[in-house]
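To start, one record:
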Amino acid sequence: MRRDVFQGIADPTRREILNMVAHRPLNMDTVAEHFDVSRTAIYKHIKILIECGLVDVKQQGRERYCEAKLQKLGEVSDWIDQYREFWETKLDALEKYINELQSKANTETKKKKNYGKQK
């Protein structure tokens, strides 16, 4: 079963596993020792990360090492970028509107001050 990258990062435990192995490959036992859940639960999380294409497990002698494959996170970045662009456009429009309001308020204040001086 092939899962998508979003399923892989949906769980905080899987995100922490990914963070751990992103720095260097770690054997399965080292990863499991970091958590307060059963090894079986951690192995299931690792299996999901493998199915998502975010982790690869390689055999080295008797040890199995988890290695991050972070290229797939580009899909997440691309998805987020579309919303970043949307919000940047909205926030730019809001900034422009606020600047216009401030400019009008400053103009009104100057008019009132000048009117008071004319009397």
User: Anything to note?
Assistant: The chain has a mean pLDDT of 91.
